[in-house]
Amino acid sequence: MTAHFSSRIPSDPLTTTPFDSVLYGLETGQCLAFGSLVPLVVGGQSHLAALVGIVALAVFGGALVLRNHIENRRSFAGVGEAAREEFVTDQERVQQLVSENGGRMKQSKIVDSVDWSKAKVSRLLAELEEDGQITKLRLGRENLVCLPDHEPTASKSPEQPKNE
Fold first, then answer.
1. pLDDT tens digit string along 37-63?
2. Were both Cys, which of 59, 96, 113, 137 would link to 144 (CB 3.0–4.6 Å)?
3. DSSP state letters, 130-156
């Protein structure tokens, strides 16, 4: 069925926007499909047109929900490690950093590796040393931070047993 278009619908279907087609369809009860007009009301039953529209929206909505679900699963796959790092205490973060650097690290390098002030790093290291989780050794004007059993052998007293 070919029809004459109102002034809102150009005769060239390639330049017709979906909005123009919807407006024309609302005015005339017909829909533009593949360059021809298709009646929205079949046999006087307008509920059939509504049903077709609802089914089309449900299919389109379902496709969008499925796409979002798949994208979310992909994005959560790499979040596991980041989430674990996010919930690490500051003391644990310092211990991990020293451990990753062979069990020994200069305090200035720790300050450079984290976004904390020198005072905060110093306070955290003092707490860790008090708890016996690290050892701080003075090397000239710097501190060497060591995990247990990673201290240089020259730093231990000769009377100290090897297992301490």
1. 555 555 556 677 778 888 888 998 889
2. 137
3. HTTS-EEEEETTEEEEE-TT-S-GGGS
